[in-house]
Amino acid sequence: MLQDYQQGRALELAAIVEGVIELADRKRIPVPTIKSILHLTRYFEDSALRQSHAHGGKENS
């Protein structure tokens, strides 16, 4: 996931984090930290994708 982020690619959040949140929700188990991590990761993903597109899809050096 770090390499995807560094290269401005979309992260595989659904398979990694959203499944955990879905299972916790089904069992009514609060997982605020995991949800916060998901939101922060999405924020950084969106920022990296915008930056990548602004620079023609090339990685910054």
TrEMBL record:
Keywords: Oxidoreductase. Gene3D superfamilies: N-(1-d-carboxylethyl)-l-norvaline Dehydrogenase, domain 2. InterPro entries: 6-PGluconate_DH-like_C_sf, 6PGD_dom2, KPA_reductase. The lineage of its organism: Bacteria, Pseudomonadati, Pseudomonadota, Gammaproteobacteria, Oceanospirillales. This is Ketopantoate reductase C-terminal domain-containing protein. The keyword NAD does not apply. It comes from Vreelandella olivaria. It holds the Pfam family ApbA_C. Residues 1-42 form the Ketopantoate reductase C-terminal domain. It comes from the Bacteria.
